[in-house]
Amino acid sequence: MTTEAKILGTRLQGKVAIVTGGGSGFGEAISKRFAEEGCKVIVADMDSVGGERVASATHPHSMHFIKTNVANEADWEQLMENTLAKFGRVDILVNNAGTSYKNKPTAEVTEDEFDKVFAVNVKSIFHSARHFIPNLINQGDGGSIINIASIGATRPRPGLVWYNASKAAVANATKGLAAEYGEKQIRVVGIGEAAFSTSFPETLSYPFPETTKMKSANAPSQLPRTPSAPSSAPQASSKPSSASPQQKKTSRNSCSMSR
Ligand SMILES: NC(=O)c1ccc[n+]([C@@H]2O[C@H](COP(=O)([O-])OP(=O)(O)OC[C@H]3O[C@@H](n4cnc5c(N)ncnc54)[C@H](O)[C@@H]3O)[C@@H](O)[C@H]2O)c1
């Protein structure tokens, strides 16, 4: 019998979140941390084994797996329909699912590898804008979108040129969406991750001096394969804060690339 884990806080009580790529790595940690704050979480991943494992592990009554390929528009239609059928509303989207090819000379990257990186990392956000945002606007309560970019968006590294370029597109789209939908009370933020030892292919190979230095500085080898939950959940509450209207406007329209 699975025991429901403790609710540690109430910051996301009453909210419903979709976490793409929630079946592993950062997405797994985000899903669990959100549930610890009272959030209902849809774990949306193309990997059924990982997705089911996360959804049933710690908060089986608050989490639900929906098999989703974020690069596929029909899957977004199903994801939104099934999320609303399961939990009745939706407030938060974490666009976390991402992919890369293994670090290698850029002249050797194939067209299929390029297309896949842009489909999973960038086109997914295009699909989410068409299918998630209209639901938030219809609900009328505002909401949050958190896009997982990469430090490579602003500090591109050799051997991962098209991955970095895809994350730069994520960062730019994040700012554009924030500017466009802030007035609808939709907060859009980005997080620029550095290097962590998940199952992500980006971390598999660092043959260049610059990336080797970065790895030793930012991703100690002792890090677990699955990162532990962050000490505080991302600021995903859609409740208006007590800030002044001008402060509110600024914070809702900002894109914070933390690293
Ligand atoms: N790990 C790092 O060092 C690092 C650094 C910078 C940015 N990031 C970003 O963080 C995010 C999460 O990476 P991670 O390190 O947790 O990787 P991970 O490989 O552990 O997890 C990625 C998850 O996304 C899922 N996924 C992949 N393609 C998908 C698709 N088309 N549809 C639905 N799900 C899909 C995978 O099944 C997996 O569960 C990615 O966007 C990645 O670009 C990671």
From TrEMBL:
Q: Where is this region: Disordered?
A: 211-259
Listed SUPFAM superfamilies = NAD(P)-binding Rossmann-fold domains
Q: Which residues cross the membrane?
A: none
Question: Is Oxidoreductase among the key words of this record?
Answer: yes
Q: Which UniProt keywords apply?
A: NADP, Oxidoreductase
Composition bias, Low complexity: 228-248
The record, for PANTHER family, names:
OXIDOREDUCTASE, SHORT-CHAIN DEHYDROGENASE/REDUCTASE FAMILY (AFU_ORTHOLOGUE AFUA_5G02870) (PTHR43639), SHORT-CHAIN DEHYDROGENASE_REDUCTASE FAMILY PROTEIN (PTHR43639:SF1)
Similarity section? Belongs to the short-chain dehydrogenases/reductases (SDR) family.
**Name used for this protein in its record:** NAD(P)-binding protein
